[in-house]
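Homework help thread (please don't just give me the answer)

Our assignment gives two proteins as sequence + structure token strings and asks us to describe the second one. The first is just a warm-up. Here they are:
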Amino acid sequence: MLSEVERFVNWTRRRSPEARTWKDYGYDLRFFIGVVGDRPPKEITFRDIDRFIAVQSEQGFKPSTINRRLAAVISLYGFLTAEDDELVCPVIFRRHHIREHQRLPRPIDEETLRQFFFVITDKRDRAMFLLMLRCGLRIGEVAALRLVDLFLEEDYPRIVVRGKGSRERGVYLSRQAETALQEYLAERPSAKSEFVFLSYLEDGLSTTAIHKRLMRYREEAQVQISAHRLRHSFANDLLNADAPITSIQKLMGHRWIESTQTYVMANDKQVCADYYAACAKLEGWQ
């Protein structure tokens, strides 16, 4: 099966060379082979998938990780089925999909944000994390940002972001985010690399490098912050400002409106108003 995985990963890479999907597929499918063995795809049965799930559960992997790896297996078999229509995917959704505990998004309070940004004096890093907080960018989207994606001279400055599945979306810049980005660009080294944010080697930063920077500042500021919570705060702030949920969906790069609606579930002002209006009418609730 290893040769089939290599062909699939290379095909995925050719389709979306700038996305990291092919890397994730490669890692997850090699893990899969490590459990079920390097056998022909036709020999893999649903019982092998049972064992694959059991091994991961015993090792303490989260349901989201297990489901992601199952999705990689399904994608592999979808690729192979185009070559052999008699091949059957051994993953059975009703049997193998693990129900995940859904946590509501948790924004970051203003004092924590103030402490976090207070310790960031590097202009590059400040611009990166403000793009997450004020524009809702994922950490991978910040890493992938290129100079040709910047449209800062327009009346409403914006950037073009490549999100999941290499889907592009336009994101507008708040004045704070634009100022931070312009200040960094003014001192950015003149390098051959097209990436906006450069490492000391004058090439693009990896998501791991950006994460390490965040961890360093988080420790220095003694706060609990993640790149994804910065993005959550962006959506929460727009929701509090009564921005239409469809606009928030487009700015966040969500494919499905249900993904955006989780922010409404976490901070529903109408439910809050209805609850306290009812409390005012109920004797003994005041």
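The one we have to describe:
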Amino acid sequence: MYILKRLGPEDREAIKEVFVSVFTAEPWCDDWSDAEQLDLYLQDLTAQGYSLTYGLYDDAGELIGISLGYIKHWYSGTEYIINELCIRTERQGAGAGTFFIREIEKAIRELGIKQIFLLTDSNVPAYEFYRKNGFTEQTTNVSFSKRV
């Protein structure tokens, strides 16, 4: 039905197509019109020594999901920090995302990774998706930002 594959910098064009199609649409509506900034962002996520990128393919060989992140060594064990995870919008709601998460969990376990950490907005469907798939909200963590 679906196949998990580890992706690398050579898969950037396919990753870019899925990423832009999902994150420029509702509910995200991100403006990724600056092609140079997009390329730099995807390079940051896929081309570092600690990058860990997965793709989910359907049985026709189409890339329908991506997980872009990195490995972080931490005092409580090695973590997979997911910066971006998505399933093509038109393929959401049919179990692909849950399958993807479960396959990622199996794959990282084999790498000795003990935990997944990610951030999402609390007012988007992804919030309930992660809760449904066994993620626990970290209520003591706070995100800060400052425009300079």
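TA reply:
I won't write it for you, but here's a hint about the kind of observation we're looking for: Residues 96-110 form the longest helix (15 residues).
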